[in-house]
Amino acid sequence: MISRLCDAHCHFFSSRFLELLTKDVRALPTDNRAAAVSGQLGWDDPGTPEALADRWVAELDRHRVARAALIASIPGDQQSVTAAVARHPSRFVGFVMCNPAAPDARGTLESLAEGLRTRHVRCVALFPAMHDYGLDDERAGSVFEAAEAHGAAVFVHCGVLTVGVRKKLGLPSPFDLRRGDPLAVARVAARFGRVPVIIPHFGAGLLREALMAADQCPNIHLDTSSSNGWMRYHPRLTLADVFRQAFEVAGPDRLLFGTDSSFFPRGWQRAIYEAQLEALDAAGANDEARAKVLGGNFDRLFPGGG
Ligand SMILES: [Zn+2]
Question: For residue 232, how far is its CA from the centre of ligand 1 (angstroms)?
C-alpha cells in the first residue's frame, strides 16, 4: 500500500535566509549576496520566495509528496515562508523560527501573531540551545501563549544541534546543548496541554528523555526526520529499534514523518524516506500505523491540505 505522504520537516532556505545567516561575513558582496553564498556552497541560487516555492512544489510532485512543512530557519525570515504558503496553501504549512530572547522579540512576536492569525504560520519553531534561553522562561511561555491563542503548534529542537550550512560556511555555533532538554519541554507542554508540541529527530540523542516527555504529555509528538546520526551515541541502535520503542511509548498517533530536506539541487531527500519505510517495516508497523506516521498525523495536526 502506498500511503499519502506529508513531510513534517523541510527547511525553506530562501535568499533572505542566506543573507541573514551571513550578515556578519565581510568578505561577501552586498549585491546579490544570496547568489554569492549559494555559489560558495555549491547550491542553486534560491531566487525569490515565489520561485523557490514553485520549485518545491515541482519537487514534491515528482516524489508524490502531498504536503510539506516549510521552516523559516532563521529569525527574521518569516516573510519568505508566508509568501510560499500564500502561493501554495494546499501544499505548504508554515513553520517559523522565533527567538523569544532576542532584543527585538516584541516586534518578532507581533509579526508572528499576524502570521498565526492569517494561518500562514501554523507552528512556531524554538531552538533554545541556539538562542540560549530556558524553556521555563516567561519569554518562551509567551510563544506558547500565542500558539494556544491561534490554535497553532510549537516545535522545540532538543538534543544535539549541528547546522550543516553554518559548518560549511565556517560560522561559529556556540550552542548550549543543555538548553534543549525534552524534560524541560515536558514541563511547558504540560502547562499548555492544548498546544501540539513537536520534538524533532526523536530528541536528537535524547531519545529516552523524549519518550519520557511524550509518555507524560499527550500533546508531545516526535518527528522522525533526518538521517538520525545521533544513533551513533548508542551502541548497536538501529532506526527500526527507535521506531519500535517510539510506537511502544508514544503510539502511532504521535509520530510525524520528516526528511529534513533543505536546499537545491539536492532537493527532497528520498533516501531518508526509503530508509524510514524500511525501518517502519522492520519495526512491524501495520498499514494503519504507517499511514498515520507518513501523513495522517500531519493532516490531523495541520488540517486544510488539498
Ligand atoms: Zn532540520
Answer: 18
